[in-house]
Amino acid sequence: MPAGLSVPVESHLVELDTAGELLRTRADLVVHLRGYAAPWGTAAGQLALSEGRVRFCGEYLRENLGITDERITLEWYGAERLPESSDGSDWRRRCVEIIIEAAASTESMASTESMDSTE
């Protein structure tokens, strides 16, 4: 992740830890990480920020919790769309959604990037 793009808030690492623990105990599950940004700045900056956030989360799950690359997909949208969990307010756009589901349903996922395809 480029320096200065994303600083994790330690209070939110508990969500990643919780997701990671679930994934460690259930080999049949995969995680989709979707990054978003608020609508300020340039479109390129928003996209870079959301990418940095989602890559940090994927690396955290891999390096700290042992989740394999094959079980992690990354998507980032900048400010071009709202998170599913958003109420429309700008502050709710600055997030990474953590979506955990059964591995079999990933076959229908489109436009995602596996962690191992970036290395």
CATH T-level topology: 60s Ribosomal Protein L30, Chain: A
The helicity comes to 25-40%
Mean pLDDT: 80
Strand order of the largest sheet: 3-1-2-4
Classify the secondary structure makeup into a structural class.
Answer: alpha+beta
Radius of gyration: 14 Å
* Element order: H for helix, E for strand: HEHEEE
CATH class: Alpha Beta
Beta-strand residue fraction: 15-25%
- Integer tally of domains: 1
Number of helices: 2
**Uncertain runs with pLDDT below 50, 5 residues or more?**
1-5, 106-114
The CATH superfamily title: OmpA-like domain
CATH architecture call: 2-Layer Sandwich
Question: What's the number of extended β-strand segments?
Answer: 4
Using brief descriptors, characterize the structure shown.
60s Ribosomal Protein L30, Chain: A; elongated; 30% helix; 119 residues; disordered N terminus; alpha+beta; four-stranded mixed sheet
